[in-house]
Amino acid sequence: MSACIQAERLTKRYGSVTAVQDLSFEVQSGEIMGLLGLNGAGKSTTLYMLTGLVAPTSGSVSLFGKPLDRQFLYVAARMGVLVERPVFHDYMSARDNLALCARLAGREASLDRALDRVGLLGVAGRRVGTFSMGMRQRLGLAQALLLDPELLILDEPANGLDPEATQEIMRLLRQLSEESRVTVLVSSHMLHEAETLCDRVAVLHEGRLVACDKTQSVLSLDESRVEVLMDAPEAAMKRLQTQPWVASVEVEKGRLLALLKEPNAHQLIAFLVSAGYRLTAVIPQRRTLQDYFMELLNKEQK
Amino acid sequence: MGRRLARAYAVEWSKAVRRRFTPAGLFIVVAIVACMPLARPITPGNTSAYAFVAYATPIALNLAGLLLLVVFASNLVAAEMGGSIWLSLVRPIRRTEVLAAKIALGMTYAMIMTGCVAIAAWALAYVLGDLKGITYGGELLFTHTDMVLYYIYGLLLSLFPQFCAISYAIFVSMCVRSSVSALAASVGIWLLVDIVKHPLRIAPGLFTSYVETPWEVFLRRCDGIEASIWPSSAYAIGVSLGWFVVFTGLSVFVMKRRDFRV
Known about the structure:
The complex is a heterodimer of chains A (about 300) and B (about 260). Chain A is of the alpha/beta class and about 300 residues long. Chain A has eleven helices and 14 strands. Chain B has a two-stranded antiparallel ribbon with strand order 1-2. The longest helix of chain B is centred in the N-terminal third of the chain and has 34 residues, at about 50-80.
């Protein structure tokens, strides 16, 4: 795989405020990468630097192997962009807005196909000024997808969308990545969506990159949190509470939930079996992106 | 570059024709001209038709200039700078080409407005008065064709300050983020400079001082007085072009460096 996006030591300062500091990362062709972080972490500024809307104070951006500042026309012709809370020409219809985008790019485009993809074909002739926030967001996605880009840069694409529409959009992005090898860089604060969509996630905190990992390895099984299906869970809970290697233990809906000080489920199993309990299942808990994100933030704040 | 510029211009034009202001602005200037006979009546059998044209045209064009200033500074450009401009800036087109298309649109609109004013003024003069040239004591001093030619000359010359006003309006709108601040800044600075230009003796170097210059020759001829187009025309053209270049250059500078955090 070749790198579609290369950001090298990107820094952006607004006066005395540093929005992004010394940020370097790569996104491979066909990959979906999520940019996560709290509000003000520098996600949008990073994306805007990658699209040319904001100039970095220092550092460089290469897209498709070309420097963005010197080869903007080449890069922009292959890129679809959605900014946060997209603004359109309110006095024009959805279709006319898309037609202007296609005309500016100097390319023929199927406007109806783009509108259909995001479920706006039925209101294509309506003035955008009458659109709800969710509809504007869908139109934003339609204009990003309009010219079949090889790279999509999306800032909070699920902003204002209902859960069903969010799922549809996530499915569409996944499909584009898998079938057309479209590279997607997406910022989001919706961790559950990022978890199902992204191949890799990068976490920003106060303008710095604090982690960048494959989603699968982030979501690996966590052997320090174990759920046990067994007989007499209450009695087992009392015995486990006295053990020094158990951090906490509780029973919920007949299941024993143990948090161990070390990720060692074997020790727990051996203890329960030797105590004569009959175990039906021992299930290590899966770590969520939310857990990972919170761990990183706690570490950063310390 | 030529193709991209043409595309950007076509897009600007498509947007402009869908805006309510575009026909409304033309209607306003034509309506102003249509009301002028109340202030300067046209009567048949004398030269009052020419005097009417000489009176109505500069007033209507001054109003057109003000409308262009207000609309381009606040509505057409500043509104986009604060929001929808991103739709253009993420396309394969340079920022300077987007800017050039906006300036070209303004120049086109100024020409259309000027044309509408001229057609309305001459139509009224033709319908209500006599257009047989300027006579004095029965002697024909200037033929009708002479008068029309000097009017066309005045009309063309009047475009220079108008183009300059557009480049000024676009420059102001580049520097602000909202329509209201663009409006306040463009009109406020204009008025302030107009107040201080004579006490500070900077009037000859400002394009706003040459707004009436294009009509001096035509006005004098309406009174039967021969007048030369030089050197005032040269000053009007030179100063206007100079400021046009300055404002456009500053706009390019700002546009290239500005961050668009939409």
